[in-house]
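Input record (one chain):
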Amino acid sequence: MRLARLTCMAALCASLSMGADVQLKRSPHQIDISIDGKPFTTYYFDPEIAKPYLMPLRTASGSIVTRDFPVRNDVSKGNPKAPSFEPHQRPLYFGHGDFDGLDFWQEPVFDRYYSDHGHQAYGHMVLKNVEEATSQGDAATVRARFTLNDPNNRVIAEETQSFTFRGDSRTRTIDCEFILYATNGPLDIGDTKEGTFGIRLAPELSAPMAA
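The corresponding structure, as predicted from the sequence alone:
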């Protein structure tokens, strides 16, 4: 049963001209995407991580515009927890803070640095299979299916994540589609500020903080 669908596009420039060749390279726990023979991003879905993500995102010229992961505390400068330090947030990912009372946005690593998470248990995603990984000239598509699990690995639902990658001499784009399936009974999507589609940019692209 299809429960919910979110479609969005992440674009790293304005307009497309003649499309460039897009290629995929599959490894056991990741898929590398290159455009016009140059690295663009990598889709990670290692079973040891709580949720899949894309990292990094590069412009057509090769500049990385997303924040590093994992983000590290700058203890060498006496700043053990900078304002932007959020250890669970990756460069591009999808998650929500309340599926059936489970947090799929934050992760257990969050508890090492923050004490305000409360009693909510963490969920995690497990790869079921890569349903599609194809490149056709100026576009490539990756679609992967995951189970949504509680801390005891009880499956509460399933999710597909689909990405179509394109680019040319000046631009890079990603069309993203996320679909939730209520495969194990009704799925309650709670009202929370924690979610849902995240892109974390490099600090150089952040607006300056007010004094």
